Amino acid sequence: MSIKKKIALLLFLLCFICFSLLTFRIIKVNAEVQKQQYKVETATYLDKYDISNVDFSKLNDELNRIEAEVLTKEITINVNGYNKKVTLKDIGIEVDKKSIKEEIFRYENHQDYMDKFAKTSSNKYENKQYSLKYIINEEKTLEFLKDLKTREDKEPQKGKLVMNKKTRELTYEGEVVGYTLDVDKSLEAVKNSIVEGNYSDSINIMGTNKSTTDKYKLINTKISSVTTEFDNKVSRAINLDVAAKSIDGVIVKPGEVFSYFKYAGPFNRSDYVYYNGVKGNGVCQVATTLYDAELMAGLKTISRSSHPDMPKYVPGGLDTAVSQSKNGYVADFRFKNTYSYPLYISAFIKKDKLTVEIWSNEKATKGVTYKLRSVKKAYASYDAYRDSYKDGKKIKTEYLGHSWYYTEVK
Fold first, then answer.
1. What is the DSSP letter of 194?
2. Which of 36, 84, 98, 271 makes a 20 to 30 Å CA pair with 314?
């Protein structure tokens, strides 16, 4: 055989071998592509889960496995100011397997054959990433929220006014704030946080705090304070102490008329003692100090009587006398709470000083302050006035009345 024929034969054999190898390769790759027609593509992930090469017939089982693991994940719900750990399963969340499968099949079915052939042939795949999708089982979620509501809802409880006997500061203590969980709004919060593509590992359960309607908690400001001095003789001090304690802590509601006799009377009761031959002597000073505190608070006097003899603990015209006769007649001191807020009366004695304070809300007086004036008209004869001020300017003068005494304090 000639050299030319040998070379031609050799070339033929080489071409045949190459063609055979190429054909074999094409057949093999095509077979692999055909197998992949029924599997999830290589390098495919559902969030962190590798679902590469999963048979379509087993995809549902794989998604069930992933769902079972995912739904045990703990998230935080914030309810009534504190955090609580729950799982997605606890609150009725499920993986939207149907939607995920549809997305996978839509991608797989629309891939070009030659594209698949090229990927399989080169064994080079770009990562394909799918995101977990969630749906809400409203029946289970509502059951969870209603159960949570049963455990978390609570009615508010009233507190009480507490006067610190040392500092004489008044505070409202012991109130329990209530809470009511809003099931409908909380359901929407769960949907928004988990289902609607805004996945969050923290959910604010929607609810409302409920406070009591107790108007006593509005009392937060001392609106007037008056102090008078007295002779610290044992019997008189006892009577002042008894009368002061009788009105200490009294609350006067809006529109209510306060009666001094109702609390401090009768003035001949057993805990009062004789002073200068009169049982209960000294109760007038407590009434007078309260009267001046009432005036300084801007309230309305309903009934007030002056003493026969001018007392020495307040200027003329700014006293009030209280008494009762054997036939049942009572000279009472009364005033009306003209504010829309309740009043709290604080009365106490320190050494030889008696102090009466009136507490209310800081908005009660509307920024108005008051000063009292005693104007002497003649011997033992006085007119009393109340001046009102706002922003440092006098805005009103009220005539309180005329008082005439048999004797005048020297």
1. I
2. 271
CB-based contact 56:94 (threshold 8 Å): no
Degrees to nearest 5, angle at CA 163 with 162 and 164: 115
Cα-based distances in Å from 63 to 47, 73, 138, 191, 199: 12, 16, 21, 22, 19
Domain assignment present for 227: yes
**Running DSSP on this structure, what letter comes out for residue 328?**
S
For 24, the domain range is 1-33
User: Model confidence over 346-357: pLDDT tens digits?
Assistant: 999 998 999 999
Q: What would the mean pLDDT of 43-66 be, rounded to a whole number?
A: 91
Say if residues 324 and 268 touch (Cβ distance below 8 Å): yes
**What residues pair up with 378 in beta bridges, in sequence order?**
381
Question: What is the C-alpha R_g of the chain?
Answer: 46
Do 300 and 400 meet the contact criterion of CB atoms below 8 Å apart? no
Whether residue 20 is contained in a domain is answered as yes
- pTM of the model as a whole: 0.74
CA dist list (Å): 180 to 157, 204, 251, 262: 14, 14, 31, 42
Total domains in the chain come to 2
Two tokens, residue 112: 């070009």
- Burial-class residue 68 by CB neighbours within 10 Å (0-12, 13-18, 19+): exposed
Q: What is the C-alpha separation between 379 and 362, in angstroms, rounded? A: 41
pLDDT tens digits for range 329-346: 899 999 999 999 999 999
Residue 22 belongs to a domain: yes
Tell me, yes or no, whether 1 lies in a domain: yes
